[in-house]
Design goal:
396 residues, Metallo-beta-lactamase, Chain A, 2 domains, 6-stranded parallel β-sheet, 22 strands
Amino acid sequence: MGKKITDKVTWVGKVDWELRKFHGDEYSTHRGSSYNAYLIRDKKTVLIDTVWLPYDKEFVSKLKEEIDLKQIDYIIANHGEVDHSGSLSELLREIPGTPVYCTANAVKSIKGQYHHEDWNFITVKTGDKLELGETTLTFIEAPMLHWPDTMFTYMSGENILFSNDGFGQHFASETLYNDSVDPSELEYESIKYYANILTPFSAMVTRKIKEIQGFNLPIDIICPSHGIIWKDNPIQIVEKYLKWADHYQENQITIVYDTMWNATRRMAETIAEGILSADPNVTVKLYSASKTDKTDIITEIFRSKAIIMGSPTVNGGYLYAIAGILELIRGMKFKQKKAAAFGSYGWSGEAVKMMNQELVKSGFEVVDAGARSTWHPDDNELDRLKEFGRELASKL
């Protein structure tokens, strides 16, 4: 059965406790997730979003326990991605012809995925309204938060913003609201979600939030499509988004490396010692790219003012895991962050220069040509690397 949010709004989604990977193998979900769908009952009845395709039959079956499906007057698809639209086919088999309200881009997305030319799509733009009786829904296009088809839906009277992927997080919980979960877990999952999903679109995040603020809409609840609902001081997550979108960084340096025979690992540890000896107030974190979850690494890079990449030279290049992280970094479009590189080698030693080139392409300010060590560093070389770390501390 659903869970009441207000007298008119009921959560009818699915909590996925077992989910550990999302977007294929791209995003780790250590705490599971949820697919939030919402049923609005006024003079007219509206379903906002559905759930992921593997749960389509379960979703429709449970929705039948909540309401006679024929009583649903409208369906709103805030976003066409399959984790939100996946149950539409199963649902519309039961109630064919029900209008589906979405953006023009969402029509393209949903038709492209499910190939139903006969569905009754109603396209909407920012400012379009849907009268339900005592309440009104207003649609707000939100392209690139995080797909071109995304929109938000605002419910007057209840003062609820249905924000789809905006302000969400992958976080499974039996409780619905932000004031009933561990705040540190919620903070981490929220910033991880922003770092890995929305960072490339930060400029658009800022513009869209400013636009919505310009509407002067009272917001008492924010209902995203993943994770918890922001009911206690919901504007706190809006303020965090504005902060995260503004070239966010903490006093942190993240060292990301991979190693074959531990020479590059030893270099990473020694450089970290040097940094901390020069600046004990900076947070330094080390991550093996081949052993640490890539989504968590990107989260730490997002939080950092600088990163230091390390790899031995292998076949005239760098290691596979480092290549993957560099590709993820390129796509994130980070701004106002600094970088350096290091690595061991036996014969040629191109990896450091190549990593620097990729970091520059990705928008980082590379502050040093980097440190290279032949074979395995001895005590003299370790002293040099420690001094390299001390010098980096002043540059980063």
